[in-house]
Amino acid sequence: MKNELKNAPRWIILGSDLLISAISVSAAFLLRFDFRLSSVEVDLLLQVLPVILVVRLLSFLIFNSYAGLIRYTGSKDIQRIFTVIFTGSFFLFLLNSAAFYTGIKFNIPRTVIIIDFLVSLMLLVLFRMSIKISYEYITNGTKGRASIIIYGAGEFGTITKRALDRDAGTKYTVVAFVDDLKTRTGKTIEGISIIGEKDLDKFIENKDIHHIIIANQALSPIKKKEIVDFALTKNIRVLDVPPSNSWIKGELSFKQIKKIKIEDLLEREVIKLDKQKIQEVNRGKVILISGAAGSIGSEIVRQIALYEPKCVILLDQAESPLYQIETELYDKFKHLNVEIVMGDISNATRMKMLFAAYQPNIIYHAAAYKHVPMMENNPAEAVRVNIKGTRILADLAVEFKVEKFVMISTDKAVNPTNVMGASKRIAEIYCQSLNKSTSTNFITTRFGNVLGSNGSVIPIFKKQIDEGGPITVTHPEVTRYFMTIPEACQLVLEAGAYGKGGEIFIFDMGESVKIVDLAKKMIKLSRLELDKDIEIVFTGLRPGEKLYEELLNNEENTTKTHHEKIMIASVKEYDFAEVKEDINEVINLYDNNDNYALVAKMKRIVPEFLSKNSAFEKLDA
């Protein structure tokens, strides 16, 4: 028989329920009178049967118990049946009492009502469960179905199993639940055994397990990574149940259960934020976000929207991405007062017009050129945007008495080996030295690579895997720190809220990740075999690239803050007059079309800037 079966008309279900109700009443009379009905009891049965059936019919209609698809019967349907039968039986008790007090000759023995309640409930549930079991057997059977283990035997595990049961086309069968709670192991859920995590390895021996579905919403990122690593060693695919707030109409469907992504394995514990402090700083303020269409800037916009700002100004020169974030905000944050401004931060006239028009109170400066090899080949553009653009915004912040200026920097500014990192370090120096002579609080935040950002290695690897490879890695020993975009932006807001001015905040980036190991894991997650289905090719370090990223240079150390994941770097102090003169000189070199002279000046400003894998290495000699 085909998997697709027509749904039975509702009137047939309703008629079947009424027939079961009639059988139940008859059975109740037989049980009550020991299967010996005299003519009196038969007459009484014939008298009360129509009344009971009318009450049951009204109950079925009111609670709509006949409308669901019987083959997908679940616990909620059984609860509804209980409510329907109990309500009808309770009404029959009331009817008996009303007849007694009004003198009407009508009486249903109370024991008959109780027996009828129990028999009706049992028969209606059995009817539905038998249809469900028969349907599953006819459409799916068990032969040829893929075996699945569900990790998590709590509420989400049960919901996940039922989602699988509902989807006849999945051809999956749940063979076990896994849970690390001792109170659950050894028990069963709907006939499926719950095994302990320590027994999983032994359980899957000689079994062809196709998938493990993680259905534990409280699972820590570390634990999730352990499960995935175990599954990958056994060549088992891992799927993940999405958070319940993303379920369609509050119900999970099989199609919503997605395969584990590499980003899921790089996540860390949820950050605890002082939301009250962040709201105090941003509520009712005009907030300017430069680079608002980028991966970091757009996420800052989304998070700032939650803290009741007076107005959010989205500044960027990228037309299409700016339009996309504008559309998203209008859909998700209809209450938010948003101003969209297209403009280049290195255009001083345009920026002054913006400040004069909107009078921002707080600036989150995320606009920058960040692609290392690109800036190594175009150092003048790094100077124009990262240095000149930052100086223009910083000077205007002072002129228009902005309260806070939060600059988004990078770990590549530490002991820079490339033009991009050096340009961000010079921008840091300017903001920090300017802070000492103004009422505006200049705050800098530093962090490493963010997952899913523009230019991140993960989207590149995904594309290469989709195209059949090869995956290109620059060097077998290259490592990077990774942080999710929301996590990075949350820490930016936290640091910005607590910053007094002059600090460089660095974030706890966790453990560095070997890029080649990242590539290998992505290959396994894609159900491919390294060197058979796809290969990894080492291309050599790119211009300006270094093997290991750092969050502090050799002369810096840190002090703790109120937040365990945020530290303050103790950095060298600079004289603002000297810094201003140096930066003016490097900006003036922009028009000379002499990259070597420009980079040489950058190296004089930042002595620790030593080029690697770059044509500018000869300047270090």
The total count of strands amounts to 22
CATH architecture of the largest domain: 3-Layer(aba) Sandwich
CATH class value of the largest domain: Alpha Beta
SS-derived structural category: alpha/beta
How far apart, in Å, are the first and last alpha carbons?
Answer: 80 Å
Number of domains: 3
Mean pLDDT: 81
Overall 3D form: elongated
Could you characterize the architecture of this molecule?
- The protein folds into 3 domains: 10-138, no CATH class; 146-260, Rossmann fold (3-Layer(aba) Sandwich), CATH 3.40.50.720; 275-593, Rossmann fold, CATH 3.40.50.
- The model is unreliable at 1-5 (pLDDT under 50).
- It is an alpha/beta fold.
- The protein contains 20 helices and 22 strands.
- It has a 9-stranded mixed sheet, sandwiched between helices.
Task: Write a compact overview of the structure shown.
With 621 residues, the protein is an alpha/beta fold.
List keywords for this structure.
621 residues, alpha/beta, Rossmann fold, 3 domains, seven-stranded mixed β-sheet, 20 helices, disordered N terminus
